[in-house]
Amino acid sequence: MRRRVNSGLKKVLLIYGGLLLVLIITCVTVYIVYNNKIKESARQSLLATEKITELVPNNNILEEASSEISKSINEVIEETTNEIIENETQETEGNIEQENTTPEVENPEPVIVEEPVKPLEFVYPVEGEILKSFAMENLVFSETLQEWVVHKGIDIKAPRTTIVKAAEEGTVKSIKNDPRYGLTVIIEHREGYKTIYSNLLTTEFVTEGEAVTKGQSIGTVGNSAAFEIADEPHLHFEMLKDDVTVDPTVYLK
């Protein structure tokens, strides 16, 4: 009986011992396999980390690159600013020089401003009644000659010594004693006009070649005309245009 019990106990112990051994072997095997996987995973992670480290530059390189980029940007900004300031300064100096620089003109010619020429407006040399009119086609009777004659001018009544004035500006062409019309002054004007002042008493106010203005005194009324000595004191006045005798009353105002 005891032998059977011992035999059964041994069998149980063998069975449990076998199971325990199998369990231990299994645990050891699992541990070895798992540990190997962990090591392999760690090794792969280490390799990946090394590759990433190789691909990414280190901090010193990044700092140097950042410094270079910052330096380049600052230099570009500074150079651009200096260039703008320099251009503005040059433009300002150029404008100032242009304003202050007077163009040089070699041998400048004087500018002559000509005054506009006033139109000729003849005025009566003396004030008074017209005793004898202009008559080149219709004859007039001469008291002195006692005949009908042509009359090249007009006779303006005026007392002796009345001042005779120039009818318009001009130049004294001649002062003469005409055998028919007595002491005479002839003035040349622009545009081919001439005025003749006869039967004068004196001509001391002007000389030949003298330039006279409108209204300037040229003599006094007298009675020196031989052909009109029987008439009342007057001024015998004639006008010519391009050496052709014309009616003075057409031009006098």
Question: Would you mind describing this structure in some detail?
Answer:
- By secondary structure, the protein is of the alpha+beta class.
- Among the domains are: about 1-55; about 130-250, Glucose Permease (Domain IIA) (Distorted Sandwich).
- About 40% of the residues lie in helices and about 25% in strands.
- It contains 2 helices and 12 strands; from the N terminus they run ααββββββββββββ.
- The chain has helices at about 1-55, 60-100, and strands at about 130, 135-140, 145-150, 155, 165, 170-180, 180-190, 195-200, 210, 215-220, 235-240, 245.
- The strands form 2 sheets. Strands 1, 4, 5, 6, 7, 8, 9, 10, 11 and 12 form a 10-stranded antiparallel β-sheet that branches.
- β11 (about 235-240) and β12 form a beta hairpin.
- The longest helix has about 55 residues, at about 1-55.
- The chain is rod-shaped.
Structure at a glance:
This protein is of the alpha+beta class and 253 residues long. The protein is built from two helices and twelve strands.
Keywords, separated by commas or semicolons:
single chain; 253 residues; Glucose Permease (Domain IIA); two-stranded antiparallel sheet; 2 helices; 12 strands
Task: Please give the CATH class of the domain at 130-250.
Answer: Mainly Beta
At CATH level 3, the topology of the domain at 130-250 is Glucose Permease (Domain IIA)
**Computed Rg:** 69 Å
3D shape: rod-shaped
Strand portion: 25-35%
Structural class call reads: alpha+beta
Q: Architecture of the domain at 130-250, CATH level 2?
A: Distorted Sandwich
On the 0 to 100 scale, the average pLDDT is 80
